[in-house]
Design brief:
The structure holds 2 protein chains of 2 kinds. The radius of gyration of chain A is 24 Å and the shape is globular. By secondary structure, chain A is of the alpha+beta class. In chain A, about 45% of the residues lie in helices and about 20% in strands. In chain A, α3 runs parallel beside α8 (about 215-220), α10 (about 290-300) runs antiparallel to α11 (about 330-345) and α11 (about 330-345) crosses α15 (about 405-415). Chain B has 2 domains: about 5-205, 2-Layer Sandwich (Cytochrome Bc1 Complex, Chain A, domain 1), CATH 3.30.830.10; about 230-410, Metalloenzyme, LuxS/M16 peptidase-like (Cytochrome Bc1 Complex, Chain A, domain 1, 2-Layer Sandwich). Chain B has helices at about 45-55, 65-70, 95-105, 115-130, 140-145, 160-165, 170-180, 195-205, 255-270, 275-280, 315-330, 335-350, 355-370, 380-385, 385-395; strands spanning about 5-10, 15-20, 25-30, 75-80, 85-90, 185-190, 230-235, 240-250, 285-295, 300-310, 405-410. In chain B, β1 and β2 (about 15-20) form a beta hairpin. The chains are: A alpha+beta, B alpha+beta. At the A-B interface, α2, β5, α4, α10 and β10 of A face α2, β5, α3, α4 and α10 of B.
């Protein structure tokens, strides 16, 4: 029988997949630090992700949280920066750190066989960092240079400004550092922040991969005896101060050949019942390669290399963002098309066919996103830090599987109103 | 150790299967043995533009993405100077959808005028976003033209100029397709929750009927040995001066490849590398500096590039880098420094091999190099590198006559 290439092979709908989030293991160290683990994978590697409640929400002075997070790896009472880096790199281990709004992390990726060699150094960093003056000075100098470079980039400027319009320049989600902020930070600021939010701070540990058999003992020996969780960290509430004006056009570089477009509105956090169904609507709108924005503005008109929409993943308050870089002469039509797509979603029902495709794509993607120990623990980390549990996971799947075109239209009527959006082009 | 099975269809398509039952997913990866180096010098950027057109519909299937997404899959592709690689990840139960889609676009594209017209624009926007509307965006364009006089590595995959992309014609597209996108010029790799039997049956069914093409005889102009150090000044509206130097190195199968790779890591790979410690931390001449290499199949380049601290002159910066190079050439490096970069490499390989996606990419790439099993021999090759070998390699590569230097000055 001749092969019929026009006929698609039979597929199993992802809607029919039974997707499970595998459970974590949990234990508590002697100092009451909670540890969540997921063991698995074929390769002899592991991840230890330490989360501190040390994000920029807790700083009194701009940039202190980020600088403390970065520089705690650049000197302890026993080792200088080079020796610390060497202590990790000699074993092929990688220690990264990142500062966010609520939390800041110190993440260790290493070969399982060398965990015992590097865990004492991690312990040293969170108990004995001493912030040498020269390290701060070099860091400031290099950051100021990097900033001067980034300020030439329209997308960098656009990302800063849109957050500022949404949340206000004093809110952790809206603020950003300028040259002066870098210069104003002192060693005393770093030491004080470190002492409260790292050395005696609140810490949660997430681990995944293949563990050495004595992993728990090693962790208890090197982390479990530290004076963590000693200070009560009070949640600071920062008021959101949104800009009064909604539309902006900024010329950063007159010779620019493209404009960076950002269109965004406020959106509630994950606990709101509209969050999960709006993820489906967002996918239809601009959330993946087959979305309406991408098909229309890239694949039909060729205005841009890419256009995306997404819900920010803040803890407290999110935003729904549309982001693209488009040719300078087509920025205006690009924005018109974005609003046109909003209008269509408000006024017309999404077809059953398109909705089914998006559902299958989302659930297939979810199956892939949960493939591997690091991915599984990352998912749990998000839930735990957002006060959610696996009920949220299964509820989201149910929502994706069951949502109907009418509900999507109602959501679009509520959330895709042009007058609610901030709009910015940076050339 | 990555286990795999390998077989070849009658039309010359090579197939590799790696089974992993711990995942619910599968990856279908098709590598075509064609990259930017195979382009006509007057029609550069074509391999990459072509990659875009591969998503514009095939002979029997109007849209590539839609049926794949419907089956819960996602896909992407990339083009390098050496190769073009397409891959999709999909729930293993729906793997036949990927075979159907990939085989149809190997059979023939739809050659839609509309798709060509739109993708020409999209690629031009990509060109602008990455190479024009970005500080130092043209640096690699200039460096490649300086370092290569003859070999097609002298242009970037995006193309030598926007005009080449703008002028692409449908006839060029067709010629390119039937010259390079044939089963005998491709490698199919399937990884994940599949069996070899299943892949054999699907490969025969979907790819088996595709006619093979004429064998592609690659006959690229070789780069002559550089005889004299080359320099170029650039002045642009950037905030910081940048120094970029390159030296010619051997190809991917060169016996000194692994030593070269480790050498660049010692010199400028991360926070314990020599350039970072000496020139950023101790001497504070650079605010950022890296050493790496191309890793291309044909002879590539070792690169050192860094941004100068404001107030430091280009000649001071250049001398500081060359002093470090002299040290590598003239002093045997301590064994523990070599052991460190070997350990880093071991770690890197293990982390890379975690996902079925990376395993698929690697198997396809090493098969292109000649044998997928080379993938499993890499670590041993790195472990055999000695301080002596790194020193010899450094002496061979870091000769002044072999150097190309771009002085990228800030106008302000």
């Amino acid at each position: 029988m001749a092969l019929d290439r026009q006929m698609a092979p039979v597929i199993k709908d992802a809607i029919d997949f039974d997707i499970k989030l595998k459970p974590y293991q949990h234990f508590v160290l002697d100092n009451q630090v909670e540890v969540y683990t997921y063991e698995g994978g074929a390769e002899p590697v592991m991840l230890m992700d330490m989360v501190f409640f040390a994000g920029n929400s807790y700083e009194d002075k701009n940039w202190v949280a980020a600088a403390t997070n970065f520089l705690l790896k650049n000197g302890t009472t026993k080792k200088n920066a080079f020796e610390i880096n060497e202590a990790f790199e000699f074993y092929g281990a990688h220690l990264s750190r990142n500062c966010y709004n609520e939390t800041a992390t110190i993440a260790l990726h290493c070969l399982t066989k060398y965990f015992k060699e590097v865990i004492p150094v991690v312990s040293e960093l969170i108990s004995e960092a001493n912030f040498p003056e020269k390290e701060l000075q070099i860091y400031q100098q290099n950051l100021i240079q990097r900033l001067s470079l980034n300020l030439k980039k329209s997308d960098f400027i656009a990302n800063r400004f849109i957050d500022e319009y949404l949340f206000g320049i004093n809110h952790p989600y809206g603020k950003y550092a300028m040259q002066e902020d870098y210069k104003n930070v002192t060693l005393a600021d770093l030491s004080a922040f470190y002492d409260t939010y790292y050395k005696h701070g609140k810490c949660i540990i997430f681990m995944a991969g293949k563990f050495p058999s004595d992993m728990q003992e090693l962790l208890n020996k090197h982390i479990g005896q530290l004076p963590l969780n000693k200070k009560v960290i009070t949640n600071v509430i920062h008021p959101i101060v949104s800009a009064a004006q909604k539309q902006y056009s900024v010329v950063n570089d007159a010779s620019s050949v493209q404009g960076s477009i950002r269109i965004a509105r406020h959106f509630p956090n994950r606990h709101h019942p509209d969050f999960a169904p709006t993820q489906v609507l967002n996918n239809i709108f601009g959330g993946f390669f087959g979305s309406r924005l991408m098909r229309n503005i890239r694949e039909d008109k060729g205005y841009t290399y890419g256009i995306h929409s997404y819900l920010q993943n803040h803890v407290q308050q999110c935003a729904w963002m549309i982001s693209t870089d488009a040719g300078k002469d087509v920025c205006k039509p690009t924005m018109e098309e974005v609003y046109k797509e909003m209008k269509i979603l408000r006024e017309e029902l999404v077809s059953e066919d398109e909705l089914k495709l998006v559902k299958n794509y989302m659930l297939g993607g979810l199956l892939g996103d949960l493939d591997g120990p690091f991915q599984i623990i990352a998912r749990w980390k998000t839930y735990i830090l957002n006060d959610l549990n696996d009920a949220y996971f299964y509820n989201t799947i149910d929502v994706v599987k069951s949502i109907q075109p009418e509900q999507l239209k109602t959501l679009a009527e509520q959330y895709l109103k042009p007058e609610d959006f901030y709009e910015l082009v940076v050339y | 150790m990555i286990q795999f099975d390998k077989f070849e269809l009658d039309n010359g398509l090579k197939v590799i299967v790696h089974q992993d039952t711990s995942t619910p997913m599968a990856v279908v990866n098709v590598l075509y043995n064609v990259g930017a180096k195979d382009e006509d010098p007057h029609k550069t950027g074509f391999a990459h533009l072509f990659e875009h057109l591969m998503f514009g519909g095939s002979i029997n299937i109007p849209i590539y993405d839609e049926p794949l997404q419907r089956a819960g899959g996602e896909n992407n592709a990339y083009t390098t100077n050496d190769l073009t690689n397409y891959y999709c990840q999909i729930p293993a139960e729906n793997i036949e959808t990927a075979f159907w889609l990939e085989s149809d676009r190997m059979l023939s594209l739809a050659f839609s005028e509309k798709s060509l017209e739109v993708q020409r624009k999209v690629v031009c926007e990509e060109f602008k976003e990455h190479y024009i509307n970005k500080p130092y965006g043209d640096a690699w364009h200039k460096m490649r033209t300086l370092a290569y006089t003859n070999h097609p590595y002298r242009w970037m995959t995006i193309g030598a100029s926007l005009e080449h992309v703008e002028q692409a014609k449908m006839q060029d597209v067709k010629d390119f397709f039937f010259k390079f996108y044939r089963p005998n010029n491709a490698i199919l790799v399937v990884t994940g929750n599949v069996t070899t039997e299943q892949v054999k049956q699907l490969a025969e069914k979907w790819f088996g009927p595709i006619a093979s093409g004429d064998a592609y005889e690659r006959n690229l102009p070789m780069e002559p040995v550089q005889q004299k150090s080359r320099f170029q000044d650039v002045r642009a509206d950037v905030p910081l001066d940048m120094l970029m130097m390159t030296w010619h190195m051997g190809g991917r199968l060169d016996e000194n490849y692994h030593a070269t790779d480790l050498m660049t890591d010692v010199i400028g790979g991360g926070a314990t590398s020599r350039l970072y410690e000496q020139l950023i931390k101790v001497k504070q001449i650079f605010s950022s500096i890296d050493c790496y290499h191309f890793g291309t199949i044909d002879p590539g380049l070792v690169v050192i590039e860094g941004k100068l601290v404001k107030g430091i002159t280009m000649s001071v910066a250049e001398k500081a880098v060359l002093d470090e190079i002299e040290l590598i050439k003239n002093t045997m490096m301590p064994t523990h420094e070599v052991q460190k970069v070997i350990n880093k490499t071991e770690s890197l390989i293990c982390f890379e091999d975690m996902s079925i996606m990376n395993r698929a990419h690697s198997l396809a790439y090493y098969e292109l190099l000649g044998d997928a099993n080379l993938m499993n021999q890499e670590l041993v090759k790195y472990q055999k590198v000695t301080p002596e070998l790194i020193q010899q390699t450094a002496q061979q590569i870091f000769q002044d006559t072999n150097r190309n230097t771009l002085y990228y000055y800030s106008k302000s």
